[in-house]
Amino acid sequence: MIDLFFKGGFLMYPIALCSVIGLTILINKAVQYRLLLKEIESQPDEIAKTKPQIMAPILKALQDGCDERELSIVGTRQVREIEKGLSWLGLIATIAPLLGLTGTVTGMIKAFMVIAESSSVNPSMLAGGIWEALITTAAGLLVAIPIHIGHHYLEKQADEIAFVMKEITTSLYMRCKGGV
């Protein structure tokens, strides 16, 4: 396996780095979202008593008597905090296949340079360049596909958290205003 890594050439290093960073962000965000959903799955009254950290600024704004517009700004700020780091996953899912494609190009250039420099070419002379081309393409895709799937899953989780927070905030706001 390590032999394949080295046959892929220098572009395997940034692809491996993308893999490590992407996996770290993916696991970190998955754990964070799981804990957040668990914290805010209670009824609004319970949330007002327990004051989970993610809801604290919104609850404080409600206590201070903020209007809907101000609550919206505070809520948007909290959602942005939740979504922090997701854009890196999107970037990694985009860059990894491009690095693989670049490896394809450099590998094919090496293969064609061998053809140009030699009067008679046998297939083993081209193998190094073709190896590099195929391995970097496969590595880029193997990193990008799971990161892309994880990115979409986490976006759905972040949307769910934002929706639950909005429901709780609306319920508490209506109670403060005496509507419900």
Automatic annotation (TrEMBL):
It is a multi-pass membrane protein. It is found in: Cell membrane; Membrane. It comes from the Bacteria. Pfam families: MotA_ExbB. Residues 68-164 form the MotA/TolQ/ExbB proton channel domain. InterPro entries: ExbB/TolQ_transport, MotA_ExbB_proton_chnl. The keyword Transmembrane helix applies. The chain crosses the membrane at residues 12-31, 86-109, 129-149. GO terms for cellular component: plasma membrane. One of its GO terms (biological process) is protein import. Keywords: Cell membrane, Membrane, Protein transport, Transmembrane, Transmembrane helix, Transport. Belongs to the exbB/tolQ family. This is Biopolymer transporter ExbB.
